[in-house]
Write a structure and sequence with these properties.
The structure holds two protein chains of two kinds. By secondary structure, chain A is an alpha/beta fold. Helix content of chain A is 36%, strand content 28%. The chains are: A alpha/beta, B mainly alpha. Chains A and B meet through helix 2 and helix 3 of A and helix 2, helix 7, helix 8 and helix 17 of B.
C-alpha cells in the first residue's frame, strides 16, 4: 500500500498555547483513520495543517509524497477537505453551489455536468439540484459539503466532524459512503466525537489529548495498548463492606484510583490484569457480588486513555 | 487561436464570472441601473439647457442631438464609476463573511483566475447600461448630430474605463478593506472626472474618458476654445486609451504578484495575520479586514501561477517607481503647463503676438516677484510629496524588510536592497528635475526682477525683500533643504520600520518624531532665544538664529522670504546641513546594528518554511 498522509513530529503553537505537540501518524491509501479526542485536543489544528491551511512550527507533513510547505498547490490538487462549518455563497441552489466549486477546481463544462451528477448520485442529492441551500437541513448540508469535497475526485479526504448534526439513519448512510470511498482507493482521515461511528468505519484510530496523539493503531492494537497499561474494574460489595473494601483496595500499590459511583466501586489498576483486586478483597473476607473488567469498546478505551485535558 | 480559446476558457470557468452572470439580470439591478442612468441623463440635459453663463457660448452653438451624445456617455461614466466598485465590494469579504474563503484557497485556484471572471463580467454590465440608454441614443440619432466615429471612439474609452475601474478596485482591495477601496476609488474618480470636465490647458485628466467625451462640446466654438483647449481629439483619445490600458495592466500585474512581497512570518501583534484567539482590538488594527488569516494571505502566494515569478522583485520595483513617477510627472507637467500658460497669456495681452521676442519681453516685464515665490514653493511641494511617497513605498514592515525574493531571472536578493536603490533613484531624479526646472525658469524670473520691474512693483510687499535675490541660489538652497530632509526622513522611517509590523504605523511615528524633534523644537527654541534678550538668556541670544536655522521649516521660510523681517535673510545652511549629516550617520549606525538580528531571524524563518 502507498502512504497517502505522512505526518512527522508536527508541532503547532499559537502564542504560548501548544495546540499540536509532536504528533506523528501515517495513513495508507484505501484506509480510513478516525481521529478522536475531547474538545480542544488539537484535532482541527492537525487537520488544517495537513490540508495546507496552516503551517506547522516544526515537523513535516507529506500528502501523496508532496510537502505541504514546499508544494501546497500540489497537495491541494490531491486533497479534499470537508470543514466542520458550512459556508456557501448567498442565495444559491445545490446545483449552483456545486457548479461554483467546479469552476474553482477549473473543471471544463462537460466535466462539470458529469461530476455534479456523480457526486449527487453518491450523496443522494440527485434530483434536488434546484433546492436552495439556505433551506437544507443539517444532514443535507453535510451531504452537500461531502459532495463538494468529492467534486475534483481527490485521492485523500479529510473530513472534520462529518457526522455532526446527522440523525442515526444519515450517519449510517455516511458510514456507507465513507466505506465506498475507501474501497475506491481513497485515504480518508475523519475527526469526530461520535465514537461508535469511528469504531465502525475506521481501519485505524488515533486518540488525541492536549495536543498529543496518546494512542494510535487499529482497534485491537488500542485495546492491547490500553490493557497493557491500566485496567478499569467495576465491582459491587454489600453495603456494610463498602468502606472496608475501599480501604483495602487503596492500600494496593497497583490501584491508582478507587471511587464509589452508583453503588459500584470503580477501580483503576495499573497492571496486566485485575486479579490483584479480587485477591485483596478475598483476603479481607469481603464478599464480591459483582465483578467486571472494562475492556473492548472504543468509548472505554477513549475514557481510559484520556484524562479530559484540553490545550 | 489556441491562446484565445484558452483565455476564453479561463474567463468562462472563473467562479466569479459564473456568480456575476447569474446575479446580473436581477430585476433590482436592471431597474436600479436604468433609474440611475435615466435620472442622470435628464439631470445633465436640464443642466446644459439652463447652462451657466460660462457654458452658454458652447451650448448655444450645438444642436440638441449633438448635445445628447456626450451627455449619454458622461452619464454612463458616472454610473459606472459608482456601480462597478460597488459590485466588487464582496469579492474577498463575501467568502470570508460566509465562511468559504478556505474552500476557495483549498481549490488551488489562482488569485488572478478567481478575480478575472468578475472583471470580465463587468462587460455584461457595460452592455446592460448601454442597452438601457438605447432610447436616448435613438433620440439623438433622429434629431441628428451624432458623429459616429467620435461617438464610437468615446464608447471604446468608456468601456476601457469600465475595465480599468474593475481591475483598480480589485487591486485596491488587496491593500485596504473593500469599503475603503470603494471610497478611495469613488472620490478619486469623481475628482478626476471633475477636473476632466474643466477646461484646463493641456487636459491632464485623461485617465477618465471625460476629456474625450466633452472634447466636441468645448471645441464647438473655435475662438473660445483656442485659449484653453489646445489638444486635438486624436491626441486625447490616444493618451486616454494608452493610460487606461496601462493602469489596467499594472493592476492586473499587481493582483498576480499579491499584496505583499511574499508570505511573511505570522505576527502576533499589529501584523498581517490574525489568529482565532486574537483580541478584537488587534483585529481592528488591521488594514485588511478581509485578508488577514494565514491561509487567506497564503492564497495570494501559494496558489498563483509561476508566470513572471522569477522576476517578481524587478516587476514590483518598477511598478512602485511607476506609482511614484506618474503623480510626480503629473505634478511637474501641471506646474510647467500652468506657468507657461500664465506667461503666454500675459505676453498675448501685452505685446504683438506676431513678434515673439517682443512677446517674451512683454511677458517678463509683467511678471511680479510673486512668480518666483509661487514657482519655488510649488516645485518644492511636488519634490517633497514625491519624496514622501518614495519614503512610504520604499520602506517595509519588520517582517518584510529583509525578506529574500527573486529579483530578476531567479536571482534572489533582499527587499531592503531594492528599497535603498529605489529611494536613491527617486531622490536623485526628483532633485535633478527640481533644479532643472528652476534653472529653466531662472532666466525669465531674473529679467522679471530687473530694477524697472521692482520700481513698478514698489508698492508690492515682497518687492523689497526680493531685491537682493539670486534666483539660482534661491532654488538650489530650497532643493537642498528638501532633499536633505527627504534623506533624514527616509532613514528615520527605515529605522522605525525595523520595530514595526506595519509601515504605515512606522510612517506615523516618523512624521511625529521628525516634525516635533527636527522641525518644531529647534524653531521654537531658536525663535524664543532670538526674541528674549533679557536676564540670563541675554548672552546666548545671538545663538537664537543659528538654532532656529537648524529647523528645515525655518530654512524654507527664510529662503522663501517668509521669516519675520527681524530674522534677516541669507543665513548660512551649514548648521542645518551639519545636523542632517550627523542624523544620517547616527540613523545608519542604528539601522545596521538593529538589522543584524532581524536579518538572521528572517533568514531562518524563510529556510524553515522552504522559501
Amino acid at each position: 500500500m502507498t502512504t497517502a498522509i505522512d505526518v512527522r513530529g508536527v508541532t503547532k503553537t499559537y502564542d504560548e498555547l501548544t495546540a499540536v505537540n509532536d504528533v506523528s501518524l501515517t495513513l495508507q491509501r484505501g484506509t480510513v483513520m478516525g481521529l478522536i479526542g475531547p474538545n480542544g485536543a488539537g484535532k482541527t489544528s492537525l487537520l488544517r495543517m495537513i490540508s495546507t491551511l496552516s503551517l506547522a512550527d516544526s515537523g513535516e507533513v507529506l500528502v501523496e509524497g508532496f510537502s505541504v510547505r514546499r508544494a501546497p498547490r500540489e497537495v491541494r490538487r490531491r486533497l479534499g477537505f470537508m470543514p466542520a462549518e458550512f459556508g456557501c455563497p448567498r442565495g444559491v441552489t445545490i446545483g449552483e453551489y456545486l457548479e461554483y466549486f467546479c469552476c474553482l477546481y477549473g473543471l471544463s463544462e462537460w466535466d462539470r455536468r458529469q461530476r455534479i451528477r456523480d457526486v449527487c448520485e453518491l450523496t443522494e442529492l440527485r434530483g434536488r439540484e434546484e433546492t436552495f441551500v439556505s433551506g437544507l437541513s443539517t444532514g443535507n448540508r453535510q451531504r452537500l459539503l461531502l459532495a463538494k469535497t468529492l467534486l475534483h475526485d481527490p485521492s485523500v479526504l479529510i473530513l472534520d466532524e462529518p457526522a455532526s448534526g446527522l440523525d442515526p439513519r444519515a450517519r449510517m448512510e455516511l458510514r456507507a459512503i465513507i466505506r465506498t470511498l475507501a474501497s475506491l482507493g481513497k485515504a480518508v482521515l475523519i475527526s469526530s466525537h461520535i465514537l461508535p461511528d469511528i469504531e465502525d468505519v475506521s481501519d485505524a484510530i488515533g486518540i488525541m489529548e492536549a495536543g498529543r496523539l496518546v494512542l494510535q493503531g487499529d482497534l485491537a492494537q488500542l485495546q492491547r495498548s490500553a490493557e497493557s497499561t491500566q485496567q478499569q474494574v467495576r465491582l459491587r460489595v454489600p453495603a456494610g463492606q463498602q468502606e472496608a473494601a475501599m480501604e483495602a483496595l487503596r492500600r494496593l500499590s497497583e490501584v491508582t484510583e478507587c471511587r464509589m459511583l452508583d453503588d459500584e466501586l470503580r477501580v483503576v489498576v495499573h497492571a496486566a490484569d485485575a486479579s490483584c483486586v479480587l485477591e485483596a478483597l478475598l483476603r479481607e473476607r469481603i464478599r464480591v457480588v459483582y465483578f467486571a473488567e472494562n475492556t473492548g469498546n472504543l468509548e472505554e478505551i477513549f475514557l481510559r486513555s484520556t484524562a479530559g485535558n484540553v490545550t | 487561436m489556441n491562446i484565445l480559446r484558452s483565455m476564453t476558457q479561463t474567463l468562462l470557468s472563473s467562479p466569479t464570472w459564473q456568480r456575476d452572470r447569474a446575479e446580473l439580470f436581477s430585476g433590482f439591478l436592471v431597474g436600479l441601473t436604468g433609474l440611475l442612468l435615466n435620472g442622470l441623463v435628464l439631470a445633465l440635459v436640464c443642466f446644459v439647457l439652463q447652462a451657466p453663463p460660462s457654458l452658454r457660448p458652447f451650448a448655444q452653438q450645438m444642436d440638441f442631438g449633438q448635445l445628447i451624445a456626450p451627455i449619454l456617455l458622461a452619464a454612463m461614466v458616472l454610473v459606472l464609476l459608482v456601480a462597478i466598485p460597488l459590485r466588487f465590494t464582496g469579492l474577498f469579504l463575501g467568502p470570508r463573511l460566509f465562511r468559504y474563503f478556505d474552500q476557495i484557497v483549498l481549490s488551488g485556484i489562482s488569485p488572478l483566475r478567481y478575480v478575472i471572471g468578475g472583471v470580465a463580467a463587468q462587460n455584461l454590465y457595460f452592455l446592460l447600461a448601454l442597452f438601457l440608454l438605447v432610447p436616448w441614443l435613438v433620440l439623438a440619432v433622429v434629431l441628428g448630430g451624432v458623429h459616429w466615429p467620435i461617438f464610437l471612439g468615446n464608447l471604446l474609452l468608456v468601456w476601457l474605463f469600465c475595465m480599468m475601474l474593475s481591475m483598480l478596485m480589485v487591486w485596491l482591495s488587496l491593500y485596504m478593506p473593500e469599503w475603503a477601496a470603494f471610497g478611495v476609488l469613488i472620490s478619486g474618480g469623481l475628482f478626476c472626472c471633475g477636473l476632466g470636465a474643466a477646461p484646463i490647458p493641456g487636459q491632464p485628466m485623461v485617465m477618465t474618458p471625460i476629456p474625450a467625451v466633452l472634447h466636441s462640446f468645448f471645441t464647438v466654438d473655435s475662438q473660445v476654445a483656442a485659449g484653453i483647449w489646445v489638444r486635438s481629439y486624436g491626441s486625447i483619445f490616444l493618451s486616454s486609451a494608452a493610460l487606461m490600458a496601462l493602469i489596467f495592466s499594472g493592476a492586473l500585474l499587481a493582483v498576480h504578484l499579491g499584496p505583499l512581497f511574499g508570505l511573511i512570518r505570522n505576527n502576533s501583534t499589529f501584523g498581517e495575520v490574525v489568529y482565532a484567539g486574537d483580541s478584537r482590538l488587534k483585529r481592528r488594527l488591521r488594514f485588511r479586514y478581509h485578508i488577514q488569516r494565514p491561509s487567506e494571505l497564503a492564497f495570494f502566494y501559494q496558489n498563483r501561477d509561476s508566470w513572471l515569478r522569477s522576476s517578481e522583485g524587478l516587476i514590483r520595483w518598477l511598478m512602485v517607481l511607476l506609482v511614484i513617477g506618474l503623480p510626480a510627472a503629473f505634478g511637474w507637467l501641471s506646474l510647467h503647463g500652468f506657468f507657461r500658460a500664465e506667461l503666454s497669456a500675459d505676453a498675448v495681452v501685452a505685446a504683438d503676438p506676431a513678434d515673439s521676442a517682443s512677446a517674451i519681453n512683454a511677458a517678463t516685464t509683467t511678471i511680479s516677484p510673486e512668480y518666483v515665490l509661487a514657482w519655488s514653493v510649488l516645485s518644492q511641494v511636488v519634490h517633497g510629496v514625491t519624496l514622501v511617497l518614495a519614503t512610504i513605498l520604499f520602506s517595509q514592515g519588520r517582517s518584510t524588510t529583509f525578506q529574500r525574493i527573486p529579483w530578476v531571472a531567479g536571482l534572489c536578493g533582499r527587499v531592503s536592497q531594492l528599497d535603498w536603490a529605489g529611494f536613491l533613484l527617486v531622490l536623485i531624479s526628483s532633485s535633478c528635475v527640481c533644479l532643472a526646472g528652476s534653472l529653466q525658469y531662472e532666466d525669465l524670473f531674473r529679467r522679471s526682477l530687473s530694477p524697472e520691474v521692482l520700481n513698478t512693483a514698489a508698492s508690492h510687499r515682497y518687492a523689497a525683500t526680493f531685491a537682493d535675490l539670486d534666483v539660482r541660489d534661491f532654488s538650489m538652497d530650497a532643493t537642498l533643504i528638501t532633499s536633505a530632509c527627504g534623506v533624514t526622513v527616509y532613514l528615520l522611517q527605515r529605522v522605525i520600520c525595523l520595530g514595526c509590523w506595519l509601515k504605515t504605523m512606522a510612517a506615523t511615528f516618523t512624521a511625529i518624531f521628525w516634525f516635533f524633534v527636527m522641525c518644531l523644537i529647534p524653531m521654537m527654541a531658536g525663535l524664543f532665544l532670538d526674541s528674549t534678550r533679557l536676564g540670563v538668556l541675554a548672552p546666548i541670544a545671538d545663538w537664537g538664529e543659528k538654532i532656529a536655522m537648524l529647523s528645515p521649516l525655518v530654512g524654507w521660510l527664510e529662503r522663501f522670504r517668509m521669516a519675520p523681517m527681524s530674522f534677516g535673510h541669507n543665513h548660512s545652511l551649514a548648521g542645518f546641513l551639519g545636523l542632517q549629516v550627523f542624523s544620517w550617520l547616527m540613523l545608519t549606525w542604528v539601522f545596521i546594528r538593529r538589522s543584524r538580528q532581524l536579518r538572521s531571524e528572517v533568514d531562518s524563518w524563510q529556510v524553515e518554511v522552504g522559501k
